[in-house]
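Sample intake sheet
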Amino acid sequence: MPPVQAKRDCANRDRRYHGPVEAWSFDGEAWTAGEKAGATLRWFSLCGSDQDDLEELAKRFGLHPLAVEDCLSPRTHAPKIDEFSDHLFLVLLAAQPGSEAPGLEEIDVFLGHDFVITYSDHRETEIEAVLQLLRSGRGIRPGADGVVYEIADRLTDAFLPEVHGIADQLDAIEANILANPSDRMHSFHVVALRSHAGQIRRFLGPQLNVMQRLSRGEFAYVSEANRIYFRDIYDHHVRLDIALEGVRDDAEVALSTYLSAVNNRMSEIVKVLSLVAALALPGTVISGIFGTNFDNVPGLHNSWGFVVMMVGMGGVAGGMLLYFWRKGWL
């Protein structure tokens, strides 16, 4: 290589980016902050929506325009992996922090033989956790695929508390249903949790497929030594998928429990109303008979007729009540 060209390349390596870009270099022994000359591996972490920095790196490393367009798109894409001539493009999903019910945040990764470029909208993601390891001088898995593994492993583990939290909430709701079945919000909470679990499962399904492809030796960018680690992530995804399916089953059980409790309460109410109607029926019949418009009604002109009628109505109702009690209907 001509000396002038070599100097130009070194100048490019030492370039300072004007946006929120953090660069790290690996020289074969340790990671160091910044872009260093002679490094065998470089990692660029971009945060935010700085289009200029991403496009500059895209020109430098020959990133495919379609992949760059996906990074800058405001829409959240489903997890996927695309293979281009000299790099891979991965779309992964992370649990977005900062809310009671975390949403999903897209993390884009460009993986080459000697470079890794990560892009996310927020700095507070699992990427930051891996960067903290480098800042503290701790080691990570070797190679560019090792960086991707460290990020993907933390992305997967971050979903475990969310899934367990949904299961715990369902258990609490089911206990409240048994204690207070009249609360109409139980069904709303159960359906909301079931919907949330279903949404997570729909997005993590494609991500499970991505990890499977990375673990089976389909791509030359993943070394044989690191494939087993991606296989471990795949196993975690399978467990997450099973746990989410269990959450949906538990939600169905909780909803059935709520509906059963509501039906039982409704049956008790109908039972009471039926009893009241049955006890009132003799009085209605007797009062109807003696309320007919005829002159020869027995007791019509007797001063004790009304008292006799009321005693008769009460006696019949009391007799029916005693009969119901002996039958065990009360």
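Comment: The first helix runs from residue 3 to 13. The chain has eight helices and seven strands.
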